[in-house]
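Progress report, Aim 2. The chain analyzed during this reporting quarter is listed below.
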Amino acid sequence: MGVLQLDHFTIRTEQWAETAEFFEHVIGLTPGPRPGFRFPGCWMYAAGHPLLHIASVQGDPDELKGYLGDKPGGYGSGSLDHVSLRCEGLEQVQARLQSMGIAFRERVIPQIAEHQLFLEDPNGITIEMIFDYVPGSRIVGQAMPHLAVDLSEKNL
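Predicted structure tokens for the chain:
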């Protein structure tokens, strides 16, 4: 018994269509089937799995309350710092973000073999995109400070 993996995350928003467009065109998720809820929204898929559920806080408030509880939408991540996605195609993503004028921060952490990009969705939620680190890969976004990583056994 135990946790196997993250199944999905849900964003409550007044901007559900803009949020779906961002995750499709910027992040690379695909819109897909969603149950016929009586409130607007959509499900976004990665590798055939519904990773992101977007729920509009507009529409049928009783239906939304029944599904998600009585909690308002908002802006930003609240207590959640960021959502992290394992990705591939670093150079293509860097080029796509630059061509779309999307600001992003970037760093490499060779000790854990990661190249990380951070950007904000239309709701102010920080999205981290993690790529496998390849020696010689370039940072083209805003460079973030280098981190000292302690790989001693007590921290692994």
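The two ends are 22 Å apart (CA to CA). The mean pLDDT is 87. These observations will guide the mutagenesis work planned for the next reporting period.
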